[in-house]
């Protein structure tokens, strides 16, 4: 069949790839260049989502933990396992028992993925591992594994895979109406933050609503000795301090906005990330240390008043010959693309 996929982010690219592998004629439409918006503005992690366990997303975490291995095996030059350290401070943030329990569940859900189990290290050991980490109230740290990637390069790799099988890529081609695609047997609306543009052209209330949540990051011109997962002081949120291309990456924020286009990081977000970093480091950073900043809009399913508690799962809605794709997560994009392909094909062969 002849199928149009609208949206050249990683979800659209993986859906096009899955359909092309099944032998269909696929055209991928992208209003700019493929992998040029949300998909290249992530925290550069392929992870299960340790904190998603708190909101009961066990199924998603399990899928994501297993999916890490897929990317590492398929594109080892772009992805690699990453050891993260989660320091625990007395009277601040989640207690040791809670984090330890979460990591035991994480390890259980990751069985068979080939990643080492979490371990606990003492304060003295952590001082050697990360000398500039604040030790005031430090009880020790957990070490656990996820994976890191270059999201822009990995996204381009997916585009190359589907293109090599015959997918037609139409860059700088914005699909404004479904009528433009009437020659196609089926349409997959995988436009990410812009999914509602085409959905609004079909009757009835949308089956799902999207939260536009901006995530901002800082890149610091200095090397990072180790990867840290830290709790924002006086909040439940966590943030990361990661080595990335010989720089230090700090992120992310979660700011709800009322439109799909990504705004640049605000002054408040920059100050927020610097303050969170400085709370844990003996050598504070200032704005002069920032090499660059970037942000991206995550199209989250609207499932909670606080975007930090929103579900990271995805959802589909079938109307006529159109499949609308809501939400998603980088790590599980390949799984989501395969399921989206199954759904549109089942829809078209009823």
Automatic annotation (TrEMBL):
A biological-process GO annotation: glycerol-3-phosphate catabolic process
One example GO MF annotation: glycerol-3-phosphate dehydrogenase (quinone) activity
All copies of domain FAD dependent oxidoreductase, residue ranges: 2-342
Gene3D superfamilies assigned to the protein according to its UniProt record, in alphabetical order: D-Amino Acid Oxidase, subunit A, domain 2 (3.30.9.10), FAD/NAD(P)-binding domain (3.50.50.60)
Cofactor: FAD
Keyword Magnesium: no
Alphabetic keyword roster: FAD, Flavoprotein, Oxidoreductase
Family the UniProt entry places it in: Belongs to the FAD-dependent glycerol-3-phosphate dehydrogenase family.
UniProt-recorded name of the protein: FAD-dependent oxidoreductase
Species in which this protein is naturally found: Basilea psittacipulmonis DSM 24701
